[in-house]
Each structure stands twice: as structure tokens, then as C-alpha cells.
Amino acid sequence: MERDEMLASLKMKLTPKRYVHSIGVEYTAACMAFVYGEDVQRARIAGLLHDCAKCLSVEDKLKKAEKFEIPISKCERENPDLLHGKLGAYYAKKKYGVTDEEILSAITYHTTGKPEMTLLEKIIFVADFIEPNRKMIRELPEIRKEAFTDLDTCIIHILRRTLEYLEVKGCAVDDLTEKTYEYYRSQA
Length: 188
What we know:
Blueprint: H1 3-13, H2 16-36, H3 40-49, H4 58-67, H5 74-78, H6 84-94, H7 101-108, H8 119-130, H9 140-147, H10 151-169, H11 175-187
């Protein structure tokens, strides 16, 4: 599917705010791909489609994951919004014609990260957090700078910030987020 077709489809499926965010992630991922020597087109596609299943209702996320036989963790069952990455990868493949397994994996893990991420997976994980339309939070300027100077340090920073935020809010933490944080911290 061509980019214009993807945009038209996303515009119908996402809220206006989520649509603008997706274009921001596409743009940021492309910029990071230039810096780190990743394929820019692959980064753009993954960035654009990363949230293609985000605007489904909580009930629909669970129903569709079950229907498509997508594995659901205990944490995802308790917080079905976490399923949007896995569902997004499914839709990217089935509805948008993406066959590149690394793009699909980058979409799957863009929220939690995972140990031993590929360069593309790292770029999408970070681009989702730092894109220009994100609400300004404490440490974001520093994280944005790290994104273009030291990708692994940036990932650790994002994960630490995410875990702190979830703890303060009393939200469930996906085991994979904790494992990813511990993995990258041990590599530093």
C-alpha cells in the first residue's frame, strides 16, 4: 500500500490527535534513521503505522486479539490498551500489506521495548516517545537530545521515566518493560 493510501485509512481510523501523533512519529523515525544509518522508508512505515490499532475500544482490543489468536499476557488482559502494539502489527500485515518482519516487530514492541532490540525497533520505540507533538514533560528535552547522540542511553532514560510514571500512577507494569529496562541497564 502506498503512503497516501495509508494516510487516508489512518485518518478514518484514528482520532485527529492520534493521526497527527502518527505523522510525528513517522517524521521523527525518518530523522533518526538518517542519523543512525537505518533504512528511512522502513522507519517511516513503522512510525506511521505504529498506532494503527490504538483507537479501538478496550473491549474490541481484547475481542480482536482473541479472534486473531494473538497471545495475551496477564498484564495485557488486565490492561487491554497494551494490546495495540500486537494488534497494530497484525493490521499492518493484513490491512496495509507490510511483509517486513522487522517493521512488524517494531510496531509490536514500540510501547514496551524488548531486550536486544534491532536498530529499527529502537528507533520506533524512541520516536514514539519524543515526537514533536508530545506534551512537554520533565526531562523530554534531554531525552530528545540523547535520541540523536546515544540511543541506548536514551532507551534507558525512557524506560526509567516510564517505570517511575507507572509506579506513581499505580498502573500495572508490563513484565517486558521491566525486562527491557534491566537488559539495557546491564549493558550500559
